[in-house]
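**Fold tokens**
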Amino acid sequence: MEQIKLGIIGAGRIGKLHAENLKNLPQVKIKAISDLFADSIKDWAASCGIENVSNDYRNILQDEEINAILICSPTDTHISIIKEAAEAGKHIFCEKPISFNLQETAEIVELVKKHGVKFQTGFNRRFDHNMSRVEELVRAGKIGDPHMLKITSRDPAPPHPDYIPSSGGLFIDMAIHDFDLARFMMNSDVVEVYAQGAVLIDPAFAKHNDVDTATISLRFANGALGVIDNSRKAHYYDQRVEVFGSEGCLTIQNDFPNSAELYTNDGVYRDKPLYFFLERYNNAYIKEIQAFVEAIVANDLVPVTANDGYQAELIAHAARLSIKENRPVALKELAAL
């Protein structure tokens, strides 16, 4: 294939991030971008070499020169755009989650197969230098059989209250990254979930039947166990992992802007971890979009499929049901629906 011509739908924070990363890839030309507020992004788009700016995403889908699209628009728009893009024969990169509805996401898994287009779900943390190294070592058997997984994932500050109603809740919006990492690192599907949640940070979450603090217990198909803890407000970005196995243990600590430590009579000090996901996972965003482009160029499989997106959503919905009914939930209960 010659140079890939690509379109981006949605020019918010994540859409702009992908555009900035893509413009550095010689095998890609961003031909067009669409956003409801198109007039406000024209100068920025020009600085990225994007010539066509529109407030209608269909202009991108109808352009026969465009080979692939990135869907970076709000989640409630994903399904209709994916369907139209697949029917138009475009390869698709879609930010997580694919949708808020499990049945709709399951239909997308089959739809992209039917139309023979590549579909990559935007789980960038798989491409992080630390996370990918752990997965590599687990697969290589360096810790023997994996027995337990622990993931700590805490944001420095909660989202704006206006975002909460449309977020999908902590499990769909935030913990879904951890659910995908759990499957990725353990090389096994999750079969059972038990979650507990509380509102300990901001009562705004309770108004929308959401939680801001949670622990989730997982049981994997390979018999291993997992525990994830989430918080919407830790005052710093906390991203740690431990995988314990029959022959050893792997750990990931937080990434810091530097390794300097100050020792004084009053104590030992160092800078906080990298502040938030854009800083912490900057290189992971670059690598995930490179992987999507390379899969198209080489006509190869994408590394994170539509089914991976579905499986993470399945865990998220099971966690939500677990809290509602205060019981462990087998994923086959939801998959059967």
The longest helix spans residues 306-325.
